[in-house]
């Protein structure tokens, strides 16, 4: 039986393992962290396309049960001026809405299903090197162990080791100039419809919030920074974080300062990293998918969705073309045009969050027109994308 070695146990890894299992391919997951990655991140929005892709591995309903529908974003300036509304879900009436959920929930859904399917998961094992023998791949880990497979799939994120093994000259991730914060607030009412995100281009930072069905407000903040390394992150306890974030939004209209002051379960600050254009996704029997290949900005709302799509399409290619380089070549040809369009669009949005001075005033003037005339085509291209599992992949 064909066997795949999957490096990384976050979202893309288990999704790939489950899709491959449906295609009749055995796999084993190797995760460098000693425990599950449940605490990585606070919450995120899984696009309607990502929810739809989960249907290929029988997890669509599970994702719907764990999140709440978030079909649109209201954009405002720091003065409270409405800038427009952006849909973030398919426009089809029969489509699945985008879902906002705790990241740990999606990790748990995927991991538990993989365990139930009997897929081996080895924790605390870091990939050091991998050799393509021409007939298979031998992976060597930091504990001296080795594993043999017919192909190796790098699902190891934006700081991927697999990517550098495929191409030692691959571009390194770069800082996006934003520090991410997040938390939850109970007992504070806001003037938005449940499930609608309101996002504010504040004078010092960017703020977004939505109300969950239980009345809890889920919020995040992006603060511009010139730092790009972990040492550049602010080291503050929860009280200091509240004071710091409250000061960022004290002069802006909206409930940001109040939500932050009453916030709980504050996430540790993280840096956003972007991956420049990657010339090589694959070499021989090795390939990278998800953030290891294309890492879009969080502004896209598509990181997890694109990773799940990658996993499904890769499994289809292996199913129909075999665990051979030709399958990986076909996978890249199918996926690269789509993800690069989305990555480029997200980069433009990301840069607008850090706009200052004249650039901020220009953004606030032109953004309403951009939203009015962008039309439904781009939204449908991103969020209405569907993968048909039974469609045969041709070489």
From TrEMBL:
GO molecular function: monooxygenase activity
Name listed for the protein in its UniProt record: FAD-dependent monooxygenase
Domain of life of the source: Bacteria
Entry annotated with the keyword Disulfide bond: no
The UniProt record lists the keyword Oxidoreductase: yes
Classification via InterPro entries: FAD-bd, FAD-dep_Monooxygenase_BioMet, FAD/NAD-bd_sf
Swiss-Prot/TrEMBL keywords: Monooxygenase, Oxidoreductase
Organism encoding this protein: Leucobacter allii
A Pfam family this chain is assigned to: FAD_binding_3
Domain FAD-binding as annotated: residue spans: 2-344
